[in-house]
Amino acid sequence: MQSPDFARRTAEGGCRHITVGKGYRLAQQGTAQSRTGQGSTVAELARFFPEATPVRIPVQLTRCSSKSESGRQGAQASPVVQSTARESSVVESTVIEFGTAREVLFACATPLEFADVLRLRTSDGSLDTEASVVAVQYHPGKTVVAARFAAAVPNWIVKS
In this predicted model, what pLDDT tens digit does every residue of 22-33 receive, in sequence order? Predict the structure, then answer.
């Protein structure tokens, strides 16, 4: 219910004081940004995955191969080039922010590309699987990724 003072403030076009609760008054009206009002970039990508559920699962991310590396590793590539490419795989810690039964969504600092193959591992080993990048959004300083599991991962995400 609006107080009679509210009507007077509105008619005057200003705000002299605000009555809060049982007669407490604030001298000035203030505003602040909500932390929840600023959606994460991963949440923006999750809109394209209707079954995505918010999760917070810390993982070790390893890029096993990239699309550009796999193109160089054809039948004529030497074993030295192949071993060098494997040794230069990127390892990073990140957090899976959304998941479906078949996909994971997360942000990372590694510039990944569509079809890159990744290994995702939790510290306790409960999740240790390969996934292929199916969606990428580039933002300053980070890459937002959706990756699909290469094989079915039973019971990794449970919805109630």
Answer: 665 655 555 554
